[in-house]
Write a structure and sequence with these properties.
- Keywords: Acyltransferase, Transferase.
- Pfam families: Acetyltransf_1.
- The chain is an alpha+beta fold.
- The protein has one domain: Aminopeptidase (3-Layer(aba) Sandwich), CATH 3.40.630.30.
- Helices cover 34% and strands 34% of the residues.
- The protein has a 7-stranded mixed beta sheet, sandwiched between helices.
- A hairpin with a 2-residue loop joins strand 2 and strand 3.
């Protein structure tokens, strides 16, 4: 499979908005109150908000392509752009999504490995993320790839207070080859 990352730029804004909404809807719409979910989508994937994030030097979005076809995206945060931990030794994997039509092809594993390589290349001690406590499939995926739970934080979908597990993987022994 010919997978590769492409950093997103301001000119990718419309495509980023589309893939962000599509993947989030596919993953979580069925498990949330429709009004709260609609409110969250309008907030989290607002064009101006995403443009501001694209322009933040500590945030990087990557599109994932299989050949010339867009199959997913990820978002990495460093320093003060991280949502919880603000350590210069860590990197946050805030978003990692594969379009529904491409799931089950080990693209998520490849993306996770790429995120680890990027963080290792920047000499980060660990990569961390938040995952919804009611998403056992994702939790097991991260655990299979070395992530362990180290805490929790609240995550709001509209007015609905949910809980995310905070998980991290130590990168000091990660082989990026």
């Amino acid at each position: 499979m010919d997978l590769h990352l492409q950093p997103c730029t301001d000119s990718d804004l419309e495509l980023l908005v589309r893939i962000s909404k599509t993947t989030f809807i596919d993953a979580f719409e069925k498990d949330n109150d429709p009004n709260d979910f609609k409110s969250y989508l309008a907030f989290a994937f607002d064009r101006n908000r995403l443009l501001k994030e694209l322009e933040d030097q500590d945030t990087t979005f990557y599109f994932v392509y299989c050949g010339s076809e867009l199959v997913g995206y990820l978002k990495l945060n460093e320093n003060q752009a991280q949502t919880d931990i603000k350590s210069d030794e860590s990197m946050e994997l805030e978003r990692i999504y594969v379009l529904q039509a491409f799931q089950g092809r080990r693209i998520g594993k490849w993306m996770l490995d790429e995120a680890k390589k990027i963080a290792t290349g920047k000499r980060m001690a660990f990569l961390w993320l938040g995952v919804w406590e009611k998403n056992p499939r994702a939790i097991k995926f991260y655990q299979r790839h070395g992530f362990t739970k180290f805490g929790t934080h609240p995550y709001y979908i509209g007015k609905d207070r949910q809980t995310d597990w905070l998980m991290r993987v130590d990168l000091r022994n990660f082989d990026s080859e």
